[in-house]
Each structure stands twice: as C-alpha cells, then as structure tokens.
Amino acid sequence: MEKLLHLTLLFLSAPCAAENVTVVAAMEGDTISVNCSYDPRHWWREKSWCRQLGQGRCRPVASAPPAWLPWPGASRGSTSIRDDARAGLLTVTIRHLRKEDAGLYRCQTDFLGRTRSLRKVQVEVLEAADLGTHVPEEPRAVQSISRSPPDVDFTVFYILAGFLVAKFMVAVLVGAVAHSRKSRERGQKPGLGDRFCLSKVRKRSSQKLLWTVGMLGVNPCGKL
C-alpha cells in the first residue's frame, strides 16, 4: 500500500516538476501572495496574471499598469497586482480565497503579441475537513483544577496595624505633654496658705502697716 501511494505521488508530481509549477496551498478565506521576478531591463513590457484554461489558453485576471504611470499597482476583485520595476518583481495577492479560486495560474509579460511566461503557480484551496485529514490531531492539554486555598495577602493587615500603633503612640505623646503642662501650671499658682497670708491693713489714724493672719489666726508664712 505504501509503495502504491509513493508511485501515485511520483506520477502526480512529475508533470509539475517538468513544467516547473509552484504549488501554493492555503485555507479557504485566507490570503496568499505570489512573487514573479523578471529582468529589470524589460520594465516597459506589459505584465499580467492569468488563469490557465487549456493548452496555450490563459485568461487574464489582473494586469499591472504601465511603468510610466505614477501608481505601480492595480486590483480586480479579490486579486491585486503590483509591479516593482526597479527590482524587477511582480507581486500578485489573492484575498479571501474561495474554492473556485483553485487552479493553475501564470505570471507573464507581453510585447507586440509575444508572450513570455515568468512563473506558473498551482493554487490549492483547503477546507477544514481537508486539513483534518492531512494534519494529525494534536493531543489536548488537560487542565487540572487546584482546590488549595488562595494565598492571603497580609499587606493590608500590616498597614492597618502600623497605623493603629502610630495613632496610639501619638495619643500617648499628646497626653504626656498635656500632663506636663498642667503640672507646670500647678507649680506656678500660689497655695491656699499664700492666698490669705499677710493681709495688709492700713490704719488711718496711726498710718502704720500691720500684718495679720488671713485665715483662722494661723500664720503659715512666718515672720516678715
């Protein structure tokens, strides 16, 4: 069976090798680009992209504008063609590939009815079913669900604890300052004994100063 398949592939690829055909395969809906090189000295010749219909028959699909025009490219439907005369490169782009786009194409130049083929391209449009038959199925990755508890972020707790400690320290400092101020004020105020000490009485008759005790006949101040 393998020998038969190998002989079949050789039989199919032989005509392509003899005619030097480039095979371009892409999925339906994709975009392909084909480059066709030519002699830059032939920049003035007409260049086109055509579809091979039969022996010697090629239906034009898109033609590049003459080299002396300011725009180097042209488009027709989903096919666009661009000519780089300095590099001698003709680029054909087919967008949104469809099944009917599959077939044999050719880049060519033309001058006074003389046509020269630059490159032959076999376009293959693949479907999802076709791709599944050629590409082996890749093993699917099995995702495991972990039930371990999520890591707890203690950053917020650390910030809150630091804020509370700082607030407590500020409150203690304010209380200490207030207590110190009250102690100083109490030390500067006179006592009860000093308030009533040594009342000065002026006697009008003798014009002498007498010192007397203000409260309960007790003299806490001593002699003056």
From TrEMBL:
One of its GO terms (biological process) is positive regulation of low-density lipoprotein particle clearance. Gene3D superfamilies: Immunoglobulins. Keywords: Disulfide bond, Immunoglobulin domain, Membrane, Signal, Transmembrane, Transmembrane helix. GO terms for cellular component: cell surface; plasma membrane raft. It holds the Pfam family V-set. GO terms for molecular function: amyloid-beta binding; apolipoprotein A-I binding; beta-catenin binding; high-density lipoprotein particle binding; kinase activator activity; lipopolysaccharide binding; lipoteichoic acid binding; low-density lipoprotein particle binding. Residues 1-18 form the signal peptide. The keyword Transmembrane helix applies. It comes from the Eukaryota. The chain crosses the membrane at residues 156-178. Residues 15-124 form the Ig-like domain. PANTHER family: TREM-LIKE TRANSCRIPT PROTEIN, TRIGGERING RECEPTOR EXPRESSED ON MYELOID CELLS 2-RELATED. This is Triggering receptor expressed on myeloid cells 2. The gene is TREM2.
